[in-house]
Write a structure and sequence with these properties.
By secondary structure, chain A is of the alpha/beta class. Chain A has nine helices and nine strands. Chain A has a single domain, classed as Thiamin diphosphate (ThDP)-binding fold, Pyr/PP domains (Rossmann fold), CATH 3.40.50. Chain A has a seven-stranded mixed β-sheet with strand order 2-1-3-4-8-7-9, with helices on both faces. Chain A has a two-stranded antiparallel ribbon with strand order 5-6. In chain A, β7, α7 and β8 form a beta-alpha-beta unit. The longest helix of chain B is centred in the middle third of the chain and has 18 residues. Classes of the chains: A alpha/beta (261), B alpha/beta (357). At the A-B interface, β1, β2, α2 and α4 of A face β2, α3, α4 and β9 of B. β2 of chain A pairs parallel with β9 of chain B, so a sheet runs across the interface.
């Protein structure tokens, strides 16, 4: 990783596609999600990190319902498929029975912030020693681009055709900020996968979240902003820019709660 | 074994813990509350975990996660709370998880909920209805064993009387030998040959997509096997009976008492009690009522189990309802006809109607 890349001479070996050096825990680099989707990137970060932390043979994922559910069969750790919104409770029961196992949830904004908001709040408040990963793209991608609780004001969706209007559709919830004050929350951060620096930064957030769990510090959440050009009705190549300018302007990237390092 | 005076709630919790239950989650609601209290008091000192869940939705979710790791786990509520859990119930069946659920119901209004369910799709719970505290202890142990044998949830149908009646009972401390649960998803799958995924839609690790039709057909075949293998019932005085009384749960205790009294008085009545509400012991009821001209169904609701009785009797005898809606002012299901005299009078009226016919 630290080798210097020379640009003044031809490369010594052919370029590799990212799929050629995927983590072993990623059982398939092939997926059926849309071009430009950010969710496979986010899942890959989680799986890479589990390997790097040496937890490949002691990790359990709990996956919610959304587009990313289709990625569930490519997860090389043990996995429980949950109902929409209920993953934090399943993770609670599993972690209480297997305190030595690294337990994480994988949920979208429709799953965690709409349907299952109460579950994640109570799980954080109880200080359950597990990590929730929120893939936040601000829409129900699986249904084709409908408003969720995190959709930003002005964002066009299939059921807010003129853009989300606070008077008619209410205000978006920034989940990370909402959970941070709870006593049981040990680490809370929001990252993004819209460009390379943020991918690296987000992986570090996931690392700190998992490390908090391994140290028994309590609940951790990493909210990851992911592109959904299909659900945003923007050209694929404009997904990262839209995320940065529109979604990222409301749901601010950064660590929200962390112990002093 | 020493017998102790215990209320049903305490006895059930002790029986569950003796059966190896390591996890319980629940949300208070009368008359389930006392069962939650008993688990909260007893389970942690027995090396288990009891969580006071913030809702029934979360209680069933927590129990789902716990049982998926291979631990013996249970949850419960009243019928009203179980209404909130229905979505998860159907998924647990399809995920083939051996969860035990206690319905400390407010009376017998939840027969349909217990045996038909309100979740999505074709699914079945094994449902056991104890008549008294001693049987509740046996059936609790049995529930954990059946759940694991079939990898299917089991529901115990109790009520206010069961939860609150104190009886001198003994809890067997020896539990059934634990099964090897290679299917468990507890994080160790890779070390055991490959990741274990527990999915209610039949997703498998490393395989894209699902074969929904094959998945559902396999579950149907399993439920047909359970239906054939797990029918439980109690029958008394049915030989030569002109009229057979059918009742379940606490109310059956009153019916059995009345039938015994009438038999002693020379009246030709019999008693039949489904112990398993699903699978309903249809063949056994057909045999027990083969010589009867009339089958009287005593249940505390507007007529729910009577559907299953009719399907068992198939027109060979007249099926009449002698129960009905009857409850206390609080709605806890302590009906006025929970009274031996009233039950006997209802049976006698059914007999008189038969004679007049």
């Amino acid at each position: 990783m630290s080798e210097t890349i020379r640009t003044d001479i031809p490369p010594a070996r052919a370029a590799k596609r990212t799929g050629e050096f995927a983590p072993e825990l990623q059982l398939s680099v092939d997926h059926d999600l849309c071009p430009g989707c950010g969710e496979p990137l986010a899942l890959r970060l989680v799986l890479e990190l589990i390997e790097e932390l040496g937890c490949a043979e002691n990790a359990l994922g709990v996956v919610g319902i959304g587009c990313y559910t289709a990625l569930g069969s490519s997860i090389g750790t043990d996995m429980i498929q949950a109902l929409h919104g209920r993953a934090p409770s399943l993770a609670t029961g599993a972690k209480r029975m297997r305190p030595e196992t690294l337990v994480f949830t994988l949920q979208g904004d429709g799953d965690m912030v709409n349907e299952g908001l109460q579950e994640v709040i109570h799980t954080a408040a109880r200080g359950e020693n597990l990590t929730c990963v929120l893939l936040n793209n601000g829409v129900f991608g699986e249904t084709g681009g409908h408003m969720t609780a995190t959709t930003v004001l002005g964002q066009r969706t299939k059921n807010t055709l003129d853009g989300r209007d606070a008077a008619r559709h209410g205000h978006p919830i920034s989940l990370a900020e909402m959970l941070a004050p709870l006593g049981g929350a040990a680490y809370i951060a929001r990252g993004s996968v819209h460009d390379a620096p943020n991918i690296v930064r987000t992986k570090n957030m996931l690392r700190r979240a998992f490390e908090a769990q391994l140290a028994g510090e309590g609940f951790s959440l990493v909210e990851i902003l992911t592109m959904c050009p299909t659900g945003w009705f923007v050209p694929t190549a404009q997904g990262p820019g839209y995320l940065d300018a529109v979604i990222g302007a409301v749901h601010r990237i950064g660590e929200i709660k962390a112990r002093a390092r | 074994m020493t017998r102790r005076l215990m209320e049903g709630s305490e006895a059930i919790a002790e029986a569950a813990i003796a059966a190896g239950c390591k996890f319980f989650a629940g949300y208070p609601m009368t008359p389930f509350t006392e069962l939650l209290e008993a688990f909260a008091a007893k389970l942690p000192t027995a090396g288990g975990v009891c969580i006071n869940a913030e809702s029934e939705l979360e209680a069933i979710g927590m129990a789902w996660g716990a049982v998926a790791t291979g631990a013996r786990a249970a949850t419960g509520s009243t019928g009203q709370g179980l209404a909130l859990m229905q979505e998860s119930f159907s998924e647990l069946v399809r995920a083939e998880l051996p969860l035990v659920v206690f319905n400390m119901a407010r009376g017998q209004f939840d027969y349909f909920q217990a045996t038909r369910g309100g979740g999505h799709g074709d699914y079945r719970f094994i449902v056991l209805a104890p008549i008294d505290v001693a049987e509740a202890i046996d059936l609790t142990r049995c529930a954990f064993e059946l759940a694991e044998r079939w990898r299917n949830p089991v529901l115990i149908y109790g009520d206010y009387l069961l939860a609150h009646t104190a009886e001198a009972v003994a809890v067997q401390t020896q539990s059934d030998p634990p099964r090897a649960k290679d299917w468990r998803a507890d994080g160790t799958g890779r070390a055991r040959g490959g990741p274990r995924h527990i999915s209610p839609i039949g997703m498998q690790p490393g395989t894209k997509g699902i074969d929904a039709e094959v998945f559902w057909q396999r579950l149907q075949a399993k439920h047909e096997q359970i239906a054939a293998a797990e029918q439980r019932f109690e029958t008394e005085h049915c030989d030569g009976a002109e009229l057979v009384v059918v009742a379940f749960g606490s109310l059956a205790r009153f019916a059995r008492h009345a039938v015994r009294e009438l038999r002693r008085a020379g009246v030709r009545v019999g008693f039949f009690r489904p112990v398993s509400l699903w699978p309903f012991p249809s063949d056994a009821l057909a045999r027990a009522s083969a010589g009867a001209t009339r089958v009287a169904v005593l249940e505390q609701n507007a007529g729910q189990m009577i559907d299953d009785v009719r399907l068992a009797v198939l027109g060979r005898a007249a099926v009449v309802a002698i129960g009905g809606i009857s409850t206390d002012a609080h709605g806890f299901g302590i009906g006025r006809f929970f009274d031996p005299e009233q039950v006997r009078a209802r049976i006698e009226r059914a007999l008189a109607a038969r004679s007049a016919a």
